[in-house]
Design goal:
33% strand; 5-stranded parallel beta sheet; Rossmann fold; alpha/beta
């Protein structure tokens, strides 16, 4: 298999999703169509030649190429995420390579119900799946169980609300672990086995499950899914942990 080459991406738009999260719209002229769930490596090079690399999930659906979107969470003191979120302007360029990854991907031809479980910025590759499902008119029922600290931390909040209101089989279920909106009657704790079990009642045990987020969430959710009757083959996970940012 040939190595994936580095390419030059040009920033065409910037959009703040939350106070700590920004979406970059990039033009990548030689981009090869990706699959929902894949990621890219980003490489920044300083004037003195110092380089730093990080991996970021692709947020956009495949059919938008050669334009892709990356949604970046600013990591305090992170040398790459702080530059991408705070310093980057439209017209800037940097290197990336991809698409990368063939395991944590969803095939729109699949008819099985889709259960997506995400925490924080772990929603990004799941959003690529949701957007792709919508764009191709997939009839597969889809449920997103999404954990955020507060309502202000929900990435893609308004888009998720719009897509969920179309009555095409998409449900977005939120849980807020630190603060909830006034009058909130939904979940207000970390994702656990009981919560996943309740969500599965509306999804079914034939679901294909994708779990992405911090390592503790991913491990506990995957264990809960198996305990609730899903086979390991029905569950795909992607995790992230502390890094240099």
């Amino acid at each position: 298999m040939a190595a994936i080459s580095w390419q030059t991406a040009t920033v065409t738009a910037l959009h703040s999703e939350t106070p700590r999260v920004k979406t970059l719209t990039l033009l990548v002229p030689d981009w090869a169509r990706h699959r929902p769930g894949q990621h890219v490596d980003v490489r920044l090079t300083a004037a003195d030649g110092y380089q730093a690399e990080r991996s970021y999930s692709i947020a956009s659906p495949p059919m938008d190429e050669p334009v892709i979107e990356l949604t970046i969470e600013r990591v305090p003191d992170g040398e790459v995420s702080t530059f991408l979120c705070d310093e980057l302007v439209v017209g800037d360029r940097f290197e990336l390579r991809g698409p990368i990854g063939g395991y944590f991907v969803w095939d729109a031809a699949a008819a099985d119900p889709l259960l997506l479980i995400g925490g924080g910025s772990g929603v990004v590759p799941l959003m690529a799946m949701i957007r792709h499902r919508s764009r191709v008119g997939s009839g597969a029922p889809c449920t997103l169980l999404y954990s955020s600290r507060t309502p202000e931390d929900v990435i893609y909040a308004s888009e998720l609300e719009t897509l969920s209101s179309r009555d095409d089989g998409l449900r977005a279920i939120h849980t807020f672990t630190r603060a909830q909106p006034p009058g909130w009657s939904g979940y207000a704790r970390r994702i656990d086995m009981a919560m996943i079990g309740e969500v599965l009642e509306g999804t079914g045990r034939m679901a294909q499950a994708f779990v992405c987020g911090p390592t503790p969430l991913v491990e506990s959710a995957a264990e809960a899914l198996v305990g609730l009757g899903l086979t390991p083959g029905q569950i795909k996970t992607e995790r992230f942990g502390p890094s240099g940012g």
